[in-house]
Write a structure and sequence with these properties.
single chain; alpha/beta; 15% strand
Length: 843
């Protein structure tokens, strides 16, 4: 297997096609990339902006160039010696009439050859929740009629531009079926279909198929079935076997019924040489199952580890106190997380929860060993267990419950029993027996189904509770509200960072190391800047108080409270600070206008995801309008006093954030794991959450910068520019290609600094028998950037770093300057220079 030295993630669609990607190949080669890492390329629903809504897994999407365009791109990659990794989506497909399989299921119901391809409960009619209101209301309004489907020529229910086919049995021998126009006749015909048209609002509580998270338009696929696996992987495996594709990224592996079995089948079919990673979120301390035949995860946990090096733990507590003062209530993430999980179980996943309850009650009725338990006690116990899960899921299957999963389950059961709540101990024991596979006899089949459904629900419930609810409610430090992170009280230390990196070398040295992805909540440079707020909680809190006072007249008093409320004000200022371009002036009307176009959609999404005073299903228009008006006022050039104050206050955060950004990048490029560059992040990326972070980068500027400066053979001195960051990336990527074994298996050596700047210094090395690399970078340096001061104007300080025997008494070359130096058993450095980032390569 060829392990990538570095991947480059490209988002297709939104203007990016195969031919445009092919034109970028020389740039990627020059940058030092080994593999292009492509977002989903298979045919997706019309107008898709991401490609995860696949309608045909065996056709390359014509919208981005089709098979011919793909082949041209593949040839361009091969010509430059670059590999190709594809993002595949085995968990779900689009529940769309464009999907021929799904359409066949709608038309033929359980008789369709694809009826078992999708995870559908066939004990009742297939629910199609795509109406604006109930079927009865839509019918009464005259919005549903009978017409000939222009695509198939068959009779169908016409609902605006959609045509839902009639099942043949309902109109066989009825030549006048299309002439039925009375509402009673249409309703009777609807009752004869294997599906039931219904309102989209009812999907969360009444759905007959498994969906992807809360997205009704994505139907779960039963890829655990061999026929379904074959049908959904035919083309991608062909591309792997013929050498066109070198690796696969498996989307949402935790959504599958049996991830281990799927991955073993995929490995068997793709062969031992295919590089495979999985999208899997790991809680702190959690490890990917050791028996999965993959190289690692896509790297969300790596982002969380970096925060250990760049967050000031002591300052974070002060920031929490300041936030609590502003909001008027104590910060209690555990309470808030529980509230978010209960909301998900009671509302957003009410249908999935109800299905689990029905299975549990069925098992209770079949299990002769089970004492009588009330329905209410079973419901309460099940909910408490779901809410208590601290990780995405366990991995029980028909083969049993692995030791790690059993240990996790014991931990969850213990926490539920210790919590003073309403859960009945006997009901908890009943659910425990099911999950531990201690139910046999007539109830065994239902128990296996229950375990599968339970495990497929804990992940989405966790994801939506944390990433898409709590992260938009708890605003203390937005940089920590990141995919893979945990907004719970935690210590932050350099020692913990080093421990994480040492563990990474052991557990997944070939996994991807990401700092930005298409799913992260903000661009990596925005996050790096926002880390610095933990270093200056007093300055930040005073600034927010000042800005709130300056803009107090923009707050509107609504019946349900002020808009925005204090917590949202805090969030707005912090989000704006992260996204503010480094060179944007307070009087730049055009630049501020461009930022506003990106910022306002973020505010809308943040408010709705929080699900407090508004949400996606029932928007509170008055509240949203009031908060939007407040944000617009902030970005109005007429609000000159605020903008001048904001930009001036932000300056040291911007400068120290840029230092953080380069330190973060150095870690990614030199620490264990495969460096993953998200499109455009070799330069600066101050994006907000999607869709903002999926915008196409300015590749023309990036190519020009690389052409002008390339790697560090012509070093730049302006380390605060995106050109310097790009040059740093290119230099280290080429080094990774030069010494792949060092970066894959070389020792990870934490280095200890002593002296004035010890606490502000991050140092580590990679070493093997042939090569060594020493990395020294700044951290927690906000105090070095008083407003208006340059790095070199601060008082001189030094620190000393001891070198272990592996590194001592060797000649080194400074990768930036080219200077050759000999080191004995230590190195003394000072931050009194224009390039406070060292990468020393042993000659």
């Amino acid at each position: 297997m060829t392990i990538p030295t570095a991947t480059y993630r490209l988002q297709f669609r939104n203007g990016m096609t195969f031919d445009r990607a092919a034109a970028l190949v020389p740039y990627l080669k020059r940058l030092g990339i080994s593999h292009l890492y492509a977002s989903p390329i298979f045919k997706a629903a019309a107008g898709s902006t991401h490609g995860y809504d696949v309608v045909d897994a065996n056709e390359i999407d014509p919208a981005i160039g089709g098979r011919d365009g793909f082949d041209r791109m593949a040839r361009a990659l091969k010509a430059e010696g670059l590999g190709l990794i594809l993002d595949i989506v085995p968990n779900h497909m689009a529940a769309s009439l464009e999907n021929a399989w799904w359409r066949d299921v709608i038309e033929l119901g359980e008789k369709s050859q694809f009826a078992r391809h999708f995870d559908i409960d066939w004990s009742r009619r297939l629910t199609l929740p795509f109406l604006g209101d109930s079927f009865e209301a839509v019918l009464a309004a005259g919005d549903i009629t009978l017409k000939t489907d222009p695509g198939s020529g068959k009779p169908a229910f016409a609902y605006f531009g959609s045509f839902y086919p009639l099942t043949p049995a309902s109109y066989a021998g009825r030549e006048g079926v299309l002439q039925i126009s009375d509402k009673a006749g249409i309703a009777a015909l609807h009752d004869q279909q294997p599906y039931r048209l219904m309102s989209w609002r009812d999907a969360e509580k009444d759905l007959s198929y498994r969906r992807f998270f809360e997205i009704t338009g994505l139907a779960g696929v039963r890829v655990e079935d061999e026929t379904v696996f074959d049908d959904t992987h035919r083309l991608v495996l062909e591309l792997v076997r013929d050498g066109t594709v070198d690796g696969l990224r498996v989307d949402h592996v935790d959504g599958l019924a049996d991830p281990k079995a799927y991955l073993r089948r995929l490995r068997s079919e793709a062969g031992p040489d295919c590089y495979i990673t999985v999208e899997k979120i790991l809680a702190h301390g959690e490890q990917m199952p050791r028996d999965w035949p993959v190289s690692g995860t896509t790297g969300y946990e790596f982002i969380a580890s970096i925060s250990q090096a760049l967050v000031d733990g002591g300052g974070l507590q002060k920031l929490r106190d300041a936030y609590a003062h502003v909001t008027g209530e104590p910060v209690d993430p555990k309470r808030d997380l529980r509230a978010a999980k209960l909301l998900m179980a009671d509302k957003n996943f009410a249908g999935e929860f109800a299905a689990l309850v029905r299975l549990a009650l069925e098992i209770r009725a079949l299990d002769q060993h089970e004492p009588f338990l009330s329905d209410a006690s079973v419901i309460t116990a099940l909910k408490e267990l779901l809410v208590a899960f601290p990780v995405y899921r366990t991995y029980g299957s028909s083969r049993g419950l692995p030791l790690e999963s059993r240990t996790m389950l014991e931990h969850v059961l213990q926490s539920v029993r210790q919590r003073r709540g309403d859960a009945d101990p006997e009901a908890i024991g009943f659910i425990e027996r099911i999950l531990k596979e201690e139910v046999d006899g007539p109830a065994s089949a239902a128990a296996l189904n229950f375990r599968t459904r339970f495990q497929q629900l804990t992940g989405p419930l966790m994801a939506k509770s944390v990433e898409d609810t709590l992260f938009y409610r708890l605003h203390v430090a937005l940089a920590l509200n990141e995919v893979g992170g945990e907004p719970l009280p935690s210590s932050f230390s350099l020692e913990r960072f080093h421990a994480d990196m040492a563990n990474r070398l052991v557990t997944q040295p070939d996994g991807l190391s990401a700092t930005s992805t298409h799913d992260t909540k903000r661009g990596e440079d925005a996050r790096a800047r926002l880390y610095t707020i933990t270093e200056a909680p007093g300055i930040w809190a005073e600034a927010v108080a000042r800005w709130r006072s300056m803009n107090r007249l923009s707050i509107q008093r609504l019946a349900d409270g002020p808009a925005p409320e204090p917590a949202v004000e805090w969030m707005i200022y912090q989000a704006l600070a992260g996204a503010w371009p480094t060179d944007l002036r307070a009087d730049d009307e055009k630049g501020i206008g461009a930022l506003e176009k990106r910022f306002l959609p973020f505010i809308e999404k943040a408010l709705r995801e929080a699900k407090l005073r508004t949400n996606w299903g029932e928007p509170n228009e008055d509240y949203e309008a009031a908060v939007m008006a407040y944000a617009r006022n902030l970005l109005s050039t007429a609000n000159r006093a605020f903008l001048i104050d904001f930009v001036g206050t932000l300056e040291p955060f911007v400068r120290s954030g840029l230092a953080n950004s380069l330190t973060q990048t150095l870690i990614k490029l030199a620490a264990p794991g495969v460096a993953d560059i998200y499109q455009g992040c070799e330069g600066h990326d101050f994006s907000l959450v999607d869709p903002d972070n999926r915008r196409e980068p300015d590749f023309q500027t990036l190519q020009q910068l690389l052409f002008e400066h390339g790697t560090a053979t012509s070093p730049r001195s302006d380390w605060q520019s995106q050109g310097f960051k790009q040059q740093l990336v290119a230099t280290l990527l080429h080094l990774r290609q030069q010494a792949p074994t060092l970066f894959r298996t070389g020792e990870y050596l934490p280095l200890v600094a002593t002296g004035d700047d010890a606490a502000r210094t991050l140092a580590f090395a990679r070493a093997d028998a042939q090569n060594a690399l020493v990395i020294i970078a700044p951290r927690l340096v906000f105090s070095r950037f008083t407003a208006g001061a340059l790095w070199r104007e601060t008082p001189p300080t030094q620190c000393s770093i001891a070198l272990p025997p592996t590194l001592a008494n060797r000649p080194y070359r400074n990768l930036w300057s080219g200077e050759r130096i000999g080191l004995s058993d230590s190195i003394t450095i000072g931050f009194m220079n224009d390039q406070p980032f060292l990468a020393l390569w042993a000659e």
